[in-house]
Amino acid sequence: MSLAKVTLFLSFLGAAAAQSAPAPAAPLQTTFPTPKGTVNLSKVKVIAAGQSFDGGMKMYDRSPSTCVGLAALSGGDKEATFLLEQGASISNVILGKNGGEGIHCMGNCRITNVWWTDVCEDAATFKQKSGTSFIRGGGAKGAADKVFQHNGAGTIDIANFYAEDIGKLYRGCGNCNNPNERHVKMENVIIKGVNVAAGINANYGDTAIITNSCIQDGDICGLFTGVTKGQPKQYSKKPDGKSCIATNVRTTC
Ligand SMILES: *[C@@H]1O[C@H](CO)[C@@H](O)[C@H](O)[C@H]1NC(C)=O
């Protein structure tokens, strides 16, 4: 091969690697980081399609607050702190308590080393139509209800995440955008104090696969019958080995 061809071949390999690159690594950390300053956003900050945003471990908050009591929230994109377009990534961010809706992912996204100090309506909402979004490292606390709300379809892949004092770490929407098949993976996750780690609609083919994790003071799975409208019904709290598969999940963390 000529030098030009070798160079072309190597850049091809580089591009192929970027396409299929695994989610960036972030270790499991069980202490919330101290912010290196605060940034107040008067409106939602958009991360454009395919772009990456590194917050440098600063706290990003909304001012005025968009967390105005759970009942008053509409769940709209404008109340979020960050809105990630298709293929966008966010890393090294601490979200403040005044953000009503945390992060909204409009397509596949990557969330790496992101911390929610006091979750309002939810920490992140996933609207992707297919494919996988990745959460690596980071943590969340103080969620009255949900941390990761999956309203679209496809897979949410969570690893090395820490949570305390939350309602659900993950919930596939029980009564919106249904029927839709949704999947969640949790690997090396520690949760101290939770209602349900993974809430899924088994009747729509949803699955939850939880491995090498610790879930203390709470249920591993909430198996629900999802609905197109009205209230979904929960019928089990236990892994059934089919819709919810838990392997090596400890209960004392
Ligand atoms: C951000 O806004 C809050 C009120 O929501 C205010 O107390 C704080 O001083 C502001 N911080 C900065 C860095 O502007």
UniProtKB/TrEMBL annotation:
Reactions catalysed: Eliminative cleavage of (1->4)-alpha-D-galacturonan to give oligosaccharides with 4-deoxy-alpha-D-galact-4-enuronosyl groups at their non-reducing ends
Cofactors (names): Ca(2+)
Subcellular location: Secreted
Annotated signal sequence range: 1-18
Enzyme class: lyase
Residue ranges crossing the lipid bilayer per the database entry: none
EC number: 4.2.2.2
Coarse class of the protein's main subcellular location: secreted
Recorded GO CC terms: extracellular region
Domain of life (superkingdom): Eukaryota
One MF annotation (Gene Ontology) recorded for this entry: pectate lyase activity
UniProt record, GO biological process: pectin catabolic process
Swiss-Prot/TrEMBL keywords: Calcium, Lyase, Secreted, Signal
PANTHER family named among the record's database cross-references: PECTATE LYASE F-RELATED (PTHR33407)
Role according to the record: Pectinolytic enzyme consist of four classes of enzymes: pectin lyase, polygalacturonase, pectin methylesterase and rhamnogalacturonase. Among pectinolytic enzymes, pectin lyase is the most important in depolymerization of pectin, since it cleaves internal glycosidic bonds of highly methylated pectins. Favors pectate, the anion, over pectin, the methyl ester.
Assigned protein family: Belongs to the polysaccharide lyase 3 family.
Protein name: Pectate lyase
Organism: Aulographum hederae CBS 113979
